[in-house]
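Bit of a strange request maybe. I'm writing a small parser for structure token strings and I need a real example to test against, not something I typed by hand. Could someone generate the tokens for this chain?
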Amino acid sequence: MNYGKILLVLGLVLLVAGCTSRPIMNVTDQPVVNAAGKQLSADQVREVIVKAGVGLGWVMTPVSPGLISGRLALREHLAVVDIRYNGKAFSITYKDSTNLHYRDGQIHRNYNGWIENLDREIRAELLRM
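Reply from user aminoacidic:
Good idea to test on real output. This should exercise your parser:
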């Protein structure tokens, strides 16, 4: 048996697996902007966030005024975020995950894509208000 080749292959597998991790993306104080230029109430922003998330497959649970818990379960992966909001801005912050290899501020790259999609859809829904 050639242990050198086995170690080389194992090393490459670990290297490739490590390449799927990225720094966690959070959305911080994204301005609430609608097409009409009118100020929205916190309740209206909550409705927009819930609608946008549900449309993308997220389970959106209002926790308290100004806070929604978002959960996205895809295959064996689970992402949980806190979404804080008011009439002027919203933020999406990592809270927990399963099978996304979270470690030291790094997470599977798919997570960031899901957050980018959620942010984009919330902003699109706001513009439709």
